[in-house]
Amino acid sequence: MRIYYYFLLLFFISTFQLNGQNDLLNDTLTNSELYEKLILTVKSNFAPDSRTAIFNIKSDTTIGGKIVLRGKTNLIEAHEAIKNIFTEKQIPFIDKIKLLPDKSLNEKIYGVINNSVSNHRTKPLYASELTTQSLLGTPVNILERNGYWYRVQTPDNYISWVDYGGIQLMTKTEINTWLTARKIVFWKQYGQSYKEPNVNSQTVSDLVVCDVLKYISTNGKFVHVEYPDGRRAYVKKTDCRDHDEWLKNANPTPENIINSAYLFMGLPYLWGGASSKAVDCSGLTKMAYLMNGIVIQRDASQQALYGGSIVSNSEYENIKPADLLFFGEKDPESGKTSVIHVALYLGNFEFIHAARYVTINSFDKNSPVYSQYRVDNFLHAKNYSNNIDSPGIVKITDCEFYKIRK
């Protein structure tokens, strides 16, 4: 990823050098409009999606004849591009841009999710919109702090705010200790951990499928485990798997991905939900792949950008089991479509998706679960199961967030 941004930066700078008289320097532009255009150009090249990158930069009033660049970004390459463009255009500036992670975090710029399911929000407020969820044991990067809230980036590159109770902050040494430790993965839809190796003892917390805990020892029919924050508990041996064995033996075939999706049948719909407690449409597809060792993007509109293309509209015979189906709306004026829903194809014209709850519908008019609404709004399908290890569809073992920090 760093190499990609390096070449993008070189291309970006050379493009501006070759086009020094482009419309950005049109005499009709005021200085403030020119600065804004320069900033927006960098943003569109390096941070087009605010869900996966922070780029909040603006030009401020001049100081001593120099404009002031203020704001924040988590992209070193975008920061360099801004400075290079203003230098290239011979625009005097003072750099007040804050590069994330924030220096006030000191060395604790990593973290591990500490609740069975942590809730992530668009703003550092409990009343703010639930945007996604993360599972116990998930490694994240910490970008900044606001009171009791931390802005984090998850393995799918999604950026959001989580409260202090949902995350354990770590240094590089501590996150590497977590990543290299022997761990177990919880493998039931829902369950508990216990204070003692006895189901009648006090519960320590609830657990959901794909939660990860550090392994300590085996005690009869129980496994002694440790949470990211150091709490210890016991989990029934039959409710979990060895984490490394799970990833080693992960076999993301269409059949296995579909069987994983079936686990969620009947679960309630929850905007931002991404666990076996409740899901939204893209949370369901994300979990079906995660259970098979694959990290995919968070939202339906993001998932639609990846995978192998399949002929759209009504040519259902080209769609294969475990392909993702995308639904949306078309702007009558521009003709552009927007993806607003995703489903997992089961075969035989049927698909599983999260709407009012996780259910199955069909494209077949003769089926008792036929949905005219979904037929009318179907846009296209993407093949995921045959495109693993391509951009946006990454094995956990290949995901940078799960690798040793250097």
Note down, in words, how this protein is organized:
The chain has 406 residues and is α+β, with helices and mostly antiparallel strands. The protein has four domains: 2-100, no CATH class; 104-178, SH3 Domains (SH3 type barrels, Roll), CATH 2.30.30; 181-248, SH3 Domains (SH3 type barrels, Roll), CATH 2.30.30; 254-396, endopeptidase domain like (from Nostoc punctiforme) (endopeptidase fold (from Nostoc punctiforme), Alpha-Beta Complex). 22% of the residues lie in helices and 35% in strands. It is built from nine helices and 27 strands. The strands form eight sheets. A six-stranded antiparallel sheet has the order 21-26-22-23-24-25. A five-stranded antiparallel sheet has the order 9-8-7-4-10. Strand 1 (55-63) and strand 2 (66-73) form a beta hairpin. Helix 2 packs antiparallel against helix 3 and helix 6 packs across helix 7 (281-290). The radius of gyration is 24 Å and the shape is globular. The chain starts with a helix and ends in an 11-residue tail after the last strand. The relative contact order is 0.09.
